[in-house]
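Recap quiz, item 2
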Amino acid sequence: MSDPTEPAKPAHAGTPTLRDLRGLTQARIALGAHGAGLPTGAALAFGLDHARAREAVWTPLDAAAIRAALRAQGLESVEVRSTVSDRTEYLRRPDRGRSLAPESATVLDGHGPGFDVAIVIADGLSATAVALNAVPAAAALAARVRRAGWSLAPVVVASQGRVAIGDPIGARLGARCVVVLIGERPGLSASDSLGCYVTFGPEPGLPDSRRNCISNIREGGLSVEAAAGQMEALLRAMLAQGTSGVALRRGDPAEPKALPDARD
Amino acid sequence: MAYATTIEGTRFTFPDLRRLLAKATPERSGDQLAGLCADGPVERLAAQIALADLPLKTFLAEELIPSEEDEVSDLIARRHDAAAFAPVSSLTVGAFREWLLSPAADARALATLSPGLTPEMVAAVSKICRLQDLVAVAAKRPVVTRFRSTIGLPGRLATRNQPNHPTDSSEGILISALDGLLMGSGDAVIGVNPATDSLPDYIRIVELLETLRLRLDVPTQHCCLGHVTVAIEAMAKGAPVDLVFQSVAGSQKANAGFGVDLAVLREASEAARALGRCPAGGQVMYFETGQGSALSADAHWGVDQQTMEARAYAVAREFDPLLVNTVVGFIGPEYLYNGKQIIRAGLEDHFCGKLLGLPMGVDVCYTNHADADGEDMDALLTLLCAAGVNFVITVPGADDVMLNYQSLSHHDAVFARETLGRPPAPEFEAWLRDVRITDAQGRLTSATGELPPALAAATRLLPGRAA
């Protein structure tokens, strides 16, 4: 044991500082400190990241813009909403975000005798993620659905929706599988992550164990094209096996797990 | 049996004990979501007044959840120590609050009383306590546990160094753990939440943490917070498991949602003790809890979320844990809507845990969809330090990049040490001095990220830097 009152010796040359090793993690390591305080730059950068995340949660979904972008991709769409009346209620009442407003249900009637696949775009907890990534993901998936020879329902754009809003929508459309593209709960480092939940045989009241999840779809995360490939593989397995979720057998390594109550 | 209060001619009735407790609970979104909360502040006060008049022993006579259908209720009933309860057995809930605040309730009296208290009793009294009461009483009840460090000594604050990484990269975990150690964090545990729940990853992570601990000779313990069944398999394969972790809740059904029951927890606890890594008289279990987990598993039996949380502590208490913490702001705004609700819940959980005799810590945290921010966490940390919390969790820059939520920063532990005067565990405090992370006064010697020579050895564990 050395004498604790002796002044600290400087690190010898060649010893890396933590700053040199920052590339090994996205974590905010080696920020420096002034007493217990963060350097001003780091403190304000944290504040900015939190402000962006809050904005992603509270910004309303621009359904008209999403639908125009879908049209530009040659995709028909319809617009629905959940029984939630505003954003505060959305955050407090997850149950209402899972149910379809009565007037929205009728919008889904009369589109056809049923479909192999329905795509739902819901705001979830990040309108930012939806604005940036949902239309490219829907278009990439639609192209794969067409190539596979599956029938595709009009894309449904759902405001104030949770993951499970795909269940009543899929059921009403008579879809064999529903793919819900939804804004994930924003973290500080990324507020634009899109989540994707795929379910076979959608009907209201399905447990989360019936869904398969693909997460972190964004620039810098899982690319839209790679995600669409994973969605197609899930759909192919579900249509062949007639089930989804924990019962689905897959050749692939385990996909990212869904965090209960955290992702939607 | 029904309960009632009359306020200025208006009679408020509560049909049973569950409803009385729920209506007396300070406002929170989870009870509103469950449809259990008071209709407004006046009905809440009426319920609190009725609750204050309730004899404490009512909770022994009337179960909230029947023992025949719930092993947690059965455990609570079986473990109740009538002799320990005797000194307060004649009190009402309101008189119990007054006794807890009085000088008669000193550390010795509170420690003797713990086995006589049930979760429902401590939850009930917490509902009629304001924040200051929750702090004042908890501060009188130290709970000390030991492994390689001694945690919970009066006047000290330990930290869990939480070096999570989104893909469990060994290098990413290691560098983050080092960052925390350099800021003086990690005397409660160096604990990783794994991104996957596979056995090989679990073993790789505990071996990595074991290597780090041995290389730097840190007087602390480590933990991979995988599922308890994975830990049991890893121990059977000879992995160096210090602490076994599990999330627990306040009903059998909610625990089943976590994939556990009392039997599997007992098996894990015995296996960890049998490894012989923990000194005699020490503890080997680590539990996390959080208000709302029973409701989210549809396993709350119509009981308010704070009482369900206290019942989880009966599960934890059964296994003599080293560490227990509530993950108070993690679950989201549908259970705790804003900073005010998170702060109160954190103090309630700490108070209830301590009265039941648990080594209680708190993950002072929030998510981005809650109406809370870092300033709420500043307030909660400061209050918890006043209340004598055993430990808090810290991550680099308050940002957990795996679980995507904000906990405290390692910097906040420096604040607690230097401004609030809460040094870490004595063994760890000495180690920090010996390796020159802190000076003789316990202040950080350098915050530039330079590794003291004693720690530079750890970088040889990184790729391409082998010694």
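Helices of chain A lie at 40-58, 63-72, 87-92, 94-97, 102-107, 127-148, 166-173, 224-241.
The longest helix of chain A spans residues 127-148.
End of item.
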